[in-house]
Amino acid sequence: MNTSLKTLFTAAIALSFTACSSETAKKENADGTTTTTTEVTTPSTDSVGTKMDAAGDKMDAKMNAAGDKMNANMDAAGDKMDAKMNEAGAKMDAAGDKMQANAAETKAKMDAKMDAAGHKMNAMGDAAAKSARETKENMQNSVK
Length: 144
Prior knowledge:
The structure is a single chain. This protein has a two-stranded antiparallel sheet. It has one domain. The N and C termini lie far apart (122 Å). It is rod-shaped and about 170 Å long. The chain has two helices and two strands. The chain is mostly helical. The mean pLDDT is 85. The relative contact order is 0.05. The longest helix has 99 residues, at 45-143. A hairpin with a 5-residue loop joins β1 and β2 (34-41).
């Protein structure tokens, strides 16, 4: 804990004022007046210093405990975030694998359809060529 000397002196003075004790005694005089006597006891600087040291040690302990608790909470939160991110990464990987599988399946289906269309076009072309040959032969035979 970093504290300046000025802060410590200010705290010592404040503590010495608040640590003072007083006793008030009232005495009734023979003439009917009342005399009030107040005795103020100021603790020694050693006593104040000891109390301040104890208070500082207690505050240091509380601050260290709070820091340790914050670190533990932050570590736990980090672990949770890591777990969630790993889970999200696994889901994204699975989705990517599924997309690749779907793309491969779609490509295979498209290739099959394209091949079938090509075969159909070849068949139509062959039929058209055969028809043209037959028509040519028929025309040649009719001319003879």
